[in-house]
Structures are given as C-alpha cells and as structure tokens.
Design goal:
Blueprint lengths: L1 H9 L9 E7 L4 H17 L6 E7 L8 E3 L4 E4 L2 E4 L2 H8 L4 E3 L1 H6 L7 H8 L3 E7 L4 H13 L6 E6 L4 E2 L12 H17 L3 H11 L6 H10 L5 E9 L12 E11 L12 H4 L4 H21 L14 H4 L3 E8 L12 E8 L6 H14 L15 E8 L3 E3 L11 E6 L2 E5 L1 H7 L3 H11 L12 E5 L1 E5 L1
Parallel strand pairs: 1-8, 2-7, 2-8, 3-6
Antiparallel strand pairs: 1-11, 3-7, 4-5, 9-11, 10-11, 12-13, 12-14, 14-19, 15-18, 16-17, 16-18
Helix pairs in contact: 1-2, 2-5, 6-9, 7-8, 8-9, 11-13
Length: 474
C-alpha cells in the first residue's frame, strides 16, 4: 500500500501547498488492476494543506438491489492494517432521515467500500469513517435529498470519497456500443463522464447516462457527489487507466476504466447553527412572489381542466435566478367562506402538499405541489373545475431544515418541526401550532400521532429538525 502511494507521489503530483481536497473519486477493482490509479487520489490529499479527521465513504451495491442508502450496524471495519472506527453517532443521526436505513447485510457483501479501507488507514491513520452504500435513487429529487441531508453533516476536516469504476465494456458486461476503435471510444466516454463530474453538473450527468447507458457502477454515488459539491469547486483528473493496461490481463474482449479524480476548494461550507431570519434566507421580491402565485394558480387550473402540465417558461413568466434556487415549499388550498359575515368565518382546508427539502428549483417545487395539493392529498377528493374560482391559495417557502439537539430548542410559532423516530416522520408548518393554539408539548404529541407513533414517543429517541417559512398569500 505504501509503495503504491510512493509511486503516485514520484509520478509528479502537483504542489505541496494545493487547496484542500474536498472529495476524491477512486476505483475499487483488485489492486493489481486499479491500485496504482487509486493511489493518486489519496496521495493528492496527503500533499494538500488539510487535516482529515473523518471520511464519508460512498460506494455502489454490487450484490443487493435496494432503494436509498444502506447504513452499517458495525461499530468498526477491519482491514489487514488494523480497524477503522465508524462514526456511530452520526450513523444513528442519519437513520432518522428518509431513504437512510440500517442494512448490515448490504455492507457484509459489498467490496466497493472495503477496497478503499487500506488506503484510508495508510494515508490518514486513525480517522473515523461514515460508510454508506448507495442503492438506486429515483430521479433528481431523491439524489438531491440524499445530498442535502449529507451536506448538513459534512465538516471542514471531512473528506468525501466516492468509490467507483467507470466504463465496463465488452460481452462480459453486455455493453458494446461500438465495435471499432474500441479503446479510443471508451476513453471518449470516460472523459465525457469526467467533464460532467468536473462541473458538478447533475442534470448533465443524468442526461449522459440516459443517452449512453454507460456502465459506471458508481453512477448513483457520483450523482450524490455532484449534488453535494459546493460552487466553484475545481476538479482534476489525476490518473486514468483501464484494465487493458495490465500486462497480466487476459480478457482481451473486455475492459474496465479507472479514474482518480480530485475535487479541490477552500473547504466544505460550514453549516451555521445560528438561527437566521426568514428574510435573510429567502429573499424574494414582490414580483417574484406574484410570479410564484401565478404559477400555482395556473398550474392547478391547467391540470384540473385539461390534465396538462403548465409550462411556465413557454407562457412567458419570468423565472429569475432567485426562483431557480432550490427551496422546499408547501402549497395549501382553502375554500372561500360561503358568507361574508363580520368577523369573517374561518376558511376551510381543501388540500395541502409540500416538499420539505430543497431538491428542486423553487418555481418547479411550487408548480408540482400546486397540482399535488389539488389532486393527491389523501384527505380530500380531487379538486373539480367548478371549485377553482372559489379556492384561496397560500404558498409557504421553507428555509433548509437544520437539526436541533432537543425539543427544548424549538420555538413555537417560529419553527416548523420535523419529528423523526423509528423510520417514521411527520411535519408541521410553523403556522399550525399557532392556528391550533397548541403548546410545545401539545404540538409534539400531535406530531407523534400524525407519524403513527404513541403520543409520548417524542420524549425518548426522537430527532427534531426545524425550519422557518415565508408565507405568500393572494
């Protein structure tokens, strides 16, 4: 292992005072095939100006098919060079989030993480690890959800390692999109994949795979990395090789590609725990708020009347840079009061659907949830055309959720609350407790019941995330 790292160093890795390496992509074939290439990434981190105290290790599942992220139950992982301690506290925190579940059998069978461990032990010594096996993720929203959750925990002294090989070509892998100039075309595929990763271009990465069907085993871990990386990150292809470069390789009709990629920047962004005002986090002009309301109204009408999705851009609505930013949002529908009595009678809820996590551009989140609130809220029958004129729409734009240490950190009337326990979850917008006149204890009890838990389950083992909300009314 040390000789591989020393050989990479001798090969001429640039500068000893490089920016911190935030993440690397590293291959996971047998060391005789990809070990020399993998060493370039680890040696690059060693030569950069940073201290690594913890490693987030993301790899694909080769043997078990599942959706989401598999967490380990083990407290340490063994290597021939000694054990590496798992950050079990963080694993417990992640278990409370959607898509993250304990699946020890997935980890027991998986080699994509295992082959990185000796490199981690040799290069960084007694660091903690966060081993995550990434299964199938359904669409861009789930990829961004996993990334947003992980970004809430990544710290300045953390390194993210994605374990992935690249193009698997040949009859063994049932992938032969070209039959001439094979090695040249394989390299073109691999370099196009690198270009998308180098720009942290998640939509481009997804389109590339859809178009080429490239057999990149770590496709989903790489996709999560794309969504995690901060802006202005710089990527370097440190080493490229294929299995065909190995003299002892006898599989002339098959090839696997290996890339060692380093992503550098100042550091992972610190996730501040101090409470910011909603206006500091969500800065929308009156025109932008009006645009969101028009999108909600017109998308709901288009679906109810014509069963068609409203195309905001084609209809000339101005989608500003603020509206392109990712935010969670709820769309709530109310029926107008039947009379105009004074004081005004209470409006009646007609539907409410939302997205807690900032996984899509705000305008798209509002568009999709406006339709969903009128058609998929299980508490109500779908909205009909005759009702549209009598509906009141409210939009709640959410700040990104942040984990709090206990329920005592929750401020009723200001904080929306996400309660998570035993793979169950429920959420209330900030206005719910105020409108219902609930105390904190009453709110937590109602959250437990909404999640299918016992009313006092919030007292032991529950996790809490809070967010704030900017309400837009017609």
């Amino acid at each position: 292992m040390r000789s591989l790292l020393e050989s990479a160093d001798a090969a001429g890795l640039a500068g000893e005072n490089d920016q911190a390496i935030l993440a690397i992509v590293s291959p996971h074939a047998g060391y005789v095939y990809s070990g020399a290439t993998a060493a370039f990434g680890y040696q690059k981190v060693k030569r950069a100006t940073q201290e690594v105290k913890r490693v987030f290790l993301l790899g694909p599942s080769h043997h078990v098919a599942f959706n989401g992220v598999a967490l380990p139950s083990a407290s340490s992982f063994a290597t021939p060079l000694g054990t590496l301690e798992v950050d079990s506290t963080l694993i417990s925190e992640l278990e409370a989030y959607p898509l993250f579940t304990l699946q020890p059998e997935v980890h027991r069978l998986e080699h994509s993480l295992e082959l990185q461990l000796p490199f981690i032990k040799t290069a960084f010594g007694e660091v903690k690890i966060v081993p995550l096996v990434i299964g199938t993720l359904t669409g861009e929203a789930e990829i961004r959800l996993v990334a947003e959750i992980l970004k809430g925990f990544v710290q300045k002294t953390d390194l993210v390692i994605v374990s992935s090989d690249f193009t698997h070509y040949g009859p063994r892998y049932d992938y032969q999109p070209f039959l001439s100039d094979i090695m040249e075309n394989i390299e073109k595929l691999d370099r196009e994949a690198f270009q998308h990763l180098s720009r942290a271009d998640l939509p481009g990465w997804l389109e590339f795979q859809e178009r080429t069907r490239d057999t990149i085993c770590g496709f989903f871990p790489c996709a999560v990395l794309c969504a995690m990386l901060p802006k202005n990150v710089q990527a370097n292809l440190l080493k490229y090789s294929t299995s065909s470069d190995v003299p002892t390789n006898k599989q002339n009709n098959n090839s696997v590609s290996y890339l060692s990629i380093g992503f550098s920047g100042e550091s992972w962004p610190v996730n501040p725990q101090e409470r910011k005002t909603t206006e500091e986090t969500i800065n929308l002009s009156n025109i932008e708020r009006a645009t969101l309301m028009e999108i909600a109204r017109r998308s709901l009408s288009s679906f109810v009347l014509n069963k068609q999705q409203f195309d905001a851009e084609r209809h000339g609505l101005s989608i500003t840079s603020n509206l392109q930013k990712c935010f969670g949002a709820f769309v709530t529908l109310y029926q107008k009061p039947a009379t105009a009595q004074i004081p005004m009678p209470e409006k009646e809820l007609r539907g409410c659907i939302g997205s807690i996590w900032p996984v899509l551009p705000l305008w798209k989140t509002v568009l999709e949830n406006a339709v969903a609130s009128g058609s998929r809220d299980p508490r109500f029958v779908p909205v009909e055309g005759a009702e549209l004129a009598d509906l009141i729409i409210e939009i709640s734009v959410l700040t990104p959720p942040r984990r709090v240490q206990s329920h005592n950190d929750i401020v009723i009337g200001t904080d929306g609350i996400i309660l998570s326990k035993n793979n169950r979850q429920s959420v209330f917008l900030p206005v719910v407790a105020t409108e219902c006149g609930w105390s904190l204890t009453e709110t937590l009890r109602e959250l437990c019941l909404k999640a299918g838990l016992k009313e006092d389950d919030w007292k032991d083992g529950a996790k809490f995330d809070v967010f704030q909300s900017l309400t837009i009314k017609e």
